[in-house]
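Example 9 (inverse folding). The structure is encoded as follows.
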């Protein structure tokens, strides 16, 4: 069984217990997954927001204090032969050959969590389930790449989201258009001054700018992110409504933790677990990637939108998928070298959010087709 499939089964049972107000029963949940109890225990600890795998499930349940977002990735000290790729080198093997993560270099891209049983992200699943049970009105703020995640159309998706407790459904694409408009005007000014600009909706790239490359932070447009624009609009319109952002990756958990207008975060994979806990299964079929919304979350999607709002011709460069080589390119920009473009779009995952680490099993199953 693939790792994401195993995580799905554990997450579905976890969600079911939380929705049925049986959180205490989570303590014995790992035993159900015999002989893979240890893997199940790690997944559950991550959902409970534990700060390390040394914590017990009982203690993590009792702990009601707000925990910091970092460390976002919990790493068990495994002895392994070969490290999975980490774009920043934050994941390393210590002198004893055990896995570890340097927090100051981790950009929450989630690449180390893809196929390994030693790294899990602490997510907002428990918090979001609690918000959905709270009796308050909750708006689902969905990322554009949701189009490919489930084998249903947008009408059916909205209906199902309402069946599991959401009151309204809103798409981040509205904020993406506002961002592109503002960036189009900014790009125009940049070109007139022979300068260049970075655009990125990618939350891992934001972390990269904050933690490792000032040049990315400094050259990034001053526009806010699509989630910021849309969540602000929603809170102004309906201040009492809670907002849960539903998206493709862990880095968005970091982004939303800094946004007072977002109350919770769910991954697409976690939404799939909740759907399944309610008896809905939309996992069949191969995603088609034909809709207008999905183009925004693909490689070049945002830079094409930004150029559409810029009245002078602009040359763009797309960096999709962070690697050690792209890091070299960022180092050269830090030394004041200019890219051969007016606008550089950077996204962490190859081909953009459609290959994010929080996608549903339907997308994961077909990821080879999607990335070709
Ligand atoms: S989340 Fe990404 S940056 Fe952080 S340790 Fe894992 S692979 Fe490296
Ligand atoms: S490309 Fe999209 S899915 Fe991947 S890290 Fe960036 S925001 Fe997340």
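The amino acid assigned to each position is listed next.
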């Amino acid at each position: 069984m693939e790792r994401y499939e195993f995580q799905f089964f554990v997450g579905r049972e976890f969600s079911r217990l939380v929705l049925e107000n049986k959180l205490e029963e989570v303590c014995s949940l790992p035993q159900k997954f015999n002989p893979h109890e240890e893997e199940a225990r790690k997944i559950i600890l991550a959902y409970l927001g534990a700060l390390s795998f040394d914590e017990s499930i009982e203690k993590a349940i009792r702990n009601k204090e707000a925990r910091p977002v970092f460390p976002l990735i919990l790493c068990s000290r495994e002895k392994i032969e070969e490290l999975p790729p980490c774009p920043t080198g934050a994941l390393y093997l210590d002198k004893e050959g055990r896995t570890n993560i340097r927090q100051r270099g981790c950009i929450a891209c989630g690449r180390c969590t893809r196929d390994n049983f030693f790294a899990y992200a602490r997510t907002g699943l428990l918090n979001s389930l609690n918000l959905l049970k709270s009796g308050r009105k909750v708006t689902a703020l969905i990322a554009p790449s949701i189009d490919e995640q489930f084998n249903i159309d947008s009408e059916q998706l909205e209906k199902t989201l309402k069946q599991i407790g959401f009151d309204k459904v809103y798409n981040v694409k509205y904020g993406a258009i506002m961002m592109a408009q503002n960036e189009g005007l900014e790009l125009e000014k940049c070109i007139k001054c022979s300068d260049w600009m970075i655009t990125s909706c990618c939350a891992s790239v934001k972390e990269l700018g904050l933690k490792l490359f000032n040049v990315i932070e400094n050259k990034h447009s001053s526009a806010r992110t699509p989630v910021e624009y849309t969540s602000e609009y929603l809170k102004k319109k309906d201040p009492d409504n809670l907002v849960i952002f539903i998206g493709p990756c862990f880095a968005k958990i970091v982004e939303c933790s800094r946004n007072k207008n977002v109350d919770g975060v769910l991954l697409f994979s976690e939404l799939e677990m909740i759907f399944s806990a309610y008896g809905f299964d939309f996992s069949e079929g191969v995603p088609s990637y034909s809709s207008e919304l999905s183009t925004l979350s693909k490689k070049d999607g945002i830079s094409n939108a930004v150029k559409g709002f810029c009245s002078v011709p602009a040359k763009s460069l797309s960096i999709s998928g962070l690697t050690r080589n792209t890091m070299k390119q960022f180092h050269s920009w830090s030394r004041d070298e200019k890219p051969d473009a007016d606008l550089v779009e950077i996204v962490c995952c190859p081909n953009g959010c459609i290959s994010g680490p929080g996608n549903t099993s339907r997308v994961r199953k077909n990821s080879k087709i999607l990335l070709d």
